[in-house]
Every structure is written in structure tokens, then in C-alpha cells.
Amino acid sequence: MIHIILPVGLLQCNCSIFGDEQSGEAIVIDPGDEIERITAELERHQLKVKAIVITHAHIDHVAGAHKLRALTGAPVYMNERDRELLNALDMQAQWLGVDTPQRTEVDATATSGTVLRLGSAQFHVLLTPGHTQGSLSLWIPQENKLVAGDTLFRDSIGRTDLPGGDSRQIIKSIKTQLLTLSDEVVVIPGHGPNTTIGREKERNPFLRGL
Ligand SMILES: [Zn+2]
Fold first, then answer.
1. pLDDT tens digits for range 121-141
2. Is residue 166 within 8 Å of 172, Cβ to Cβ?
């Protein structure tokens, strides 16, 4: 499996491109910006996008989805509990002081139990609300990887002081959905370096005593 992590845009959101060499298909997670760089990687590996997944509707994760969808025809998956945030892209753009991007259509809802397939790998959607109400993570057992959006970071967790944030809820999500995975699972956060579940269990100051 090809896996490319591209930090894109002003806030360096980690966009993940997963590609299956056999079928030539790809899943792109959080195309927040710099769609030219993303499509260049897709072309370089001769990959056709079969699905675009948005971990949550913050502007730095979703702003490029409209463009990537238009270029590839791939359906966009997002949890419907973030619909309100998606509708407030203009407000989010104002917070950051950037132009309002075109809002993507959402073709399918992604929620607990949703499974996307790429080659022989399964991408299991885990609903992990707290950073936003519709925040989700993707668990890929065949790759031993978790794409965590802005729920879990190396040494930190997602902020909960923005609209839709809930500090108790994010801790509950992490405890019940993420820390239950095995210690060796590699975590790809929405920003910054990778980590593992075991490392965060041991060292993450926000998870002490869980
Ligand atoms: Zn966010």
C-alpha cells in the first residue's frame, strides 16, 4: 500500500493519500489545500481517487475538497454532525483571515460502522466526537494505522474551545475508541508528527490516569 502524508496549507494539515498498487485506486483523507500537490502525487503513482474522506469540517481539513471532487469525480464522505460547521466556512475563513473557499458537496455520510475498501484493506470509520461533533478517525487494521484527524496528536489532543468542541467528550472518545487499539498502532494525526497508541498512553499529558 502506498501512503503519502502531505502537510498542506497555512495550518499544515496532514493530508493522507492511500494508494493500492494493484487496483490503482486511492483514498484521500483531508485535502485541506494545495490540491495541485495532491494531484501531482496521484499522477506520479498513477492513482485514481475512489473516495475523499473528511475527518471534520474545519476549514484547514476541508477547504480543498470541492476542487479535488471536481477534478476526480470521487464522492466525499463526512459525518453529518459537522454539517453546520461546513455551512459556516465563511465564518471559519474570517477567523483565519483567508478567502472563503468553495464548499464541497457531501455525497455520503461516514459514521460508526462505515467501512471503505481499498484493495484488500478496510478503512473503518470510528466516530470520535469532541474536537467537533462530527469528528471521525479511520482505523485501517491491515496497515496497523489510525488516521486520527484532530482528535489525538503526539503529546496532545484536539482543542475543544471552538464551536462544537467538548472537552469531556473528546477524552471519552479517545479512551473508548482509540486507546482500546493495540500499543503498536501507528497514529497519523491531523497535524504534526506520527506517533503510536502505546507512546500516547504512556506520555501524553492529557491522557494521564485514563
Ligand atoms: Zn480541527
1. 999 999 999 999 999 999 999
2. no
From the CA of 92, how far away is ligand 1's center (Å)? Answer: 11
Residue 131 C-alpha to ligand 1 middle, in angstroms? Answer: 7
Give the sheet arrangement for strand 2-8, strand by strand: 2-8, 13-20, 25-29, 48-53, 76-78, 108-109
Q: How far is the CA of 23 from the centre of ligand 1 (A)?
A: 32
CA of 21 relative to ligand 1 center, distance in Å: 31
Output DSSP code: residue 101.
P
Asked if 158 contacts 131 with a C-beta cutoff of 8 angstroms, the reply is yes
Asked if 52 contacts 76 with a C-beta cutoff of 8 angstroms, the reply is yes
pLDDT in tens, 16-45: 999 999 999 999 999 999 999 999 999 999
Q: How many angstroms does the Cα of residue 90 sit away from the middle of ligand 1?
A: 15
**Nearby residues for ligand 1 (ion, Cβ within 5 Å):** 58, 150
